[in-house]
């Protein structure tokens, strides 16, 4: 007689749970396509708020969060304004929706995290969010298109917060989807010919607050940007690629106050590119760095992006690894602020000094771009330190004649004591 329990637990029943694993495996997107990641817990544990939106969700990862619902109605108002400038509103909306739906597989492949929304739900999220972003950039670019009672532009803090939220790594949509909407809704609109291209529109919105490199801003060219954050990353590239000596470890240097104490001059650089640190003839030039709440969030998201994106150069990670050594404590921050190198808008030195110390916690500095600079600084520091100590010793003991006599007397006494000890040893004769 067959045991019913054993029959139920036969080969076909026992391995049925593997079907679920097979489905999950087959449903995976290629890792090489990912460009929008969840920020790892290790980075969030240092300053989790830097990665969370404050007023608006963009894309599927934060969609539906209660604290961000306030902006949903404003998205629709902006979408309506964008559509009203198109010759055929209904047809344009239909073609835009279809274009986003056709991108469904490509869109999902860009997210590390599996998106559980249905194709229509995901298309709606990207269509509404994409239209809002385009209209926001247009209104920012052309003042005459702003609505008189627009609560977003009537509140300066709101625009600043939107600039912050739209630069978060987890709050992105694929750039190709935004480009498609731009071609369908903006280029064919009544104002399309009077507007710059999409990358220029985007950067025009972010540039005033994020202190980006003017040269890079002017030379921006079209290429397949994964998302807005990657476009912003390109605007922080150094004017000349720094030399990489160590690719697996980074060289630290002394703090700003220590360098200053031994006579190394710290000077505000004249370039706007924050990467262009130069050390020549005992002078370290550091370009000015503007620090406020939005820049802190931006830099931490750019560092997270460099940590997760394969092939993306770690310029910003390298920069803050170096600055974390230069700005070691409050006295270092005060010194650099006094020289105009740090422009602090956060209020309170404790915030700025802790910022530099926290920025690279839990971060792997794999490609350090300031090794040569650090080697030169360290070499000059220890040379200057030796001279500084010798000068201090000389000033302490040889400043007055009696100091010289005291040193000479001490040396003579030591010499006589040594001679006396030698004679005592030589004159000693053990008994036989």
TrEMBL record:
<protein>
    <submittedName>
        <fullName>Uncharacterized protein</fullName>
    </submittedName>
</protein>
<feature type="transmembrane region" description="Helical">
    <location>
        <begin position="402"/>
        <end position="426"/>
    </location>
</feature>
<keyword id="KW-0812">Transmembrane</keyword>
<dbReference type="Pfam" id="PF03140">
    <property type="entry name" value="DUF247"/>
</dbReference>
<dbReference type="InterPro" id="IPR004158">
    <property type="entry name" value="DUF247_pln"/>
</dbReference>
<keyword id="KW-1133">Transmembrane helix</keyword>
<keyword id="KW-0472">Membrane</keyword>
